[in-house]
Automatic annotation (TrEMBL):
GO terms for molecular function: isomerase activity. InterPro entries: IolE/XylAMocC-like, Xyl_isomerase-like_sf, Xyl_isomerase-like_TIM-brl. PANTHER family: HYDROXYPYRUVATE ISOMERASE (PTHR12110), INOSOSE DEHYDRATASE (PTHR12110:SF41). This is Sugar phosphate isomerase/epimerase.
Amino acid sequence: MTNPLTNKIGVIVDSFGIGVREGLLKAREVGAEGVQIYAVSGEMDPANLNAAARRELRSYIDGLGLEISALCGDLGGHGFQDAAANPEKVEKSKRILDLAVELGTNVVTTHIGIVPDDRDGAIYSAMQQACEELGQYAKSLNSYFAIETGPEPAAHLKSFLDTLSTNGVSVNFDPANMVMVTGDDPVQGVITLKDYIVHTHVKDGKRLRVVDPRQVYGFLGYQKMTHEHIAQMASEGADFEEVPLGEGSVDFDAYFAALQSIGYKGYLTIEREVGAKPELDIRKAVEFIKRYR
């Protein structure tokens, strides 16, 4: 690293496993400047937050001196691979984006399902149509739906994004997913996806053996994706293992340098999906990133 990092540090509130309000307090306590919050179900489901509740939540977060780096709008299942399920999912995704804007962020991260190799097939077409509609909607709000990296190599994801008419659907870059699942190189991935990266996760992991990405992220006609399933795989570690920052295969010196080289100014948001002591791991992760400042 030649230059010190200037990016703000975020934390996924849900990683603490103690609820939104407590998680927000904890995020401030561990030294984060911003937070990412799941907004799919429960108290953060857009349907459960009226205008007054949204104003109150935003002012509570402001009062803690925090910003929202992004919302997580990951609806699980098959992402947008199933054309029949997409209208409902696209509609819900739009409502999550509306909520994000009202809470002061212009990024919603999501998984869209593995982009298939067959460009002429029904699954590719279904994903393309959903992402085109979401991208245009996001663009109309000056916002982004950010696809999390990992299910497919960066070059393949870029070729899919390049088929869309706007960059309203962009990228939430997660280096650990790449090393754990596809064995892709995060540093090259940053360069490949440089025009699309609007948010990042800071996470580390190891690949223990080659794994079919469908076993991790699901696929239409194969199995559904759930975060619980991924966390279980990442902690039990037959195929891959999520580990505390600096203990895995992500070369953070080179990764952070790559983000600098493309002029990335957004958040570095810590995600910890496994482990018995998330708070301890997250505190260490904040300190780890601060060493680059």
